[in-house]
Design goal:
Largest sheet: 6 strands, mixed
Number of helices: 9
Radius of gyration: 17 Å
Oligomer: single chain
Number of domains: 1
CATH topology: Rossmann fold
């Protein structure tokens, strides 16, 4: 079981500071949600965690392994799986080929799609030879999550997995994340704006505003007026 620790990180885009002293703890067997309005630094936090953007100060670690300036592929080999906003599947590759891109960091003996992936997302098994670009938005999101699971992650981070997805598939995604938490003991960190989704599946919440953590606590805190105030437009 692997924990993810983000300690007092700062991140800049040129002269503009996107994150200010952000600290987050995501623990095994729990779903941690980071909420906030658009443009407050949620995606920047995940990009820092995955190594897509370098931090100016602070520390990010998986258990005792400090990630430092490790590039994304090294973080993936340490067990960090990433589902980006917008899914970013390969539209001209088949579903099968998209899944196989997750093999890159695996040893030859591990290069197979775990059985539970198709149990979570059975529609993908029926579409293995269909091009990714021909799938619906919800099916593409399922494929993006499945591709990340192929890498055998210990920590799974997801950037707005419900964005633009129909309600039935949101429920499927929620059930999948709960399975990964409860049955696989996975550490899950997700960025979201859909409060009802987070209230239903999250254990812990953080609220970002203007690049800073304004609140942290159990998901039940979402029912408090002073907490919801940070999320109002």
């Amino acid at each position: 079981m692997t924990s993810l620790s983000v300690r007092a990180i700062d991140l800049f885009y040129g002269a503009a500071q996107a994150l200010r002293g952000v600290s987050i703890e995501a623990r095994p067997g729990r779903i941690t949600a980071v909420l906030g309005r658009n443009g407050v630094g949620k995606s920047s936090t995940l990009r820092a965690i995955t190594g897509l953007n370098a931090i100016a100060r602070g520390e990010i670690s998986l258990d005792s392994a400090v990630l430092g300036k490790a590039p994304p592929y090294q973080r993936a080999r340490l067990g960090l799986g990433y589902v980006p906003q917008g899914r970013e599947i390969f539209p001209l590759l088949t579903v099968k080929e998209n899944l196989e891109t997750g093999y890159a960091g695996l040893k030859p003996r591990d290069r197979a799609v775990p059985d539970y992936v198709f149990e979570l997302f059975p529609v993908l098994k029926t579409m293995l030879n269909r091009r990714g670009g021909d799938l619906s938005g919800g099916q593409q999101q399922q494929l993006a999550i499945a591709r990340a699971l192929v890498t055998r992650p210990k920590v799974l981070v997801l950037d707005e997995p419900t964005e633009g997805i129909q309600p039935s598939i949101i429920k499927d995604i929620g059930r999948a994340l709960q399975f990964l938490r409860d049955e696989k003991g996975m550490t899950i960190l997700l960025v979201e704006q859909y409060l009802d989704f987070c209230r239903e599946i999250a254990d812990d919440i953080y609220i970002l505003d203007r690049g800073e953590i304004r609140h942290k606590g159990p998901a039940s805190d979402l029912d408090k007026a002073e907490v919801r105030r940070h999320l109002m437009v």
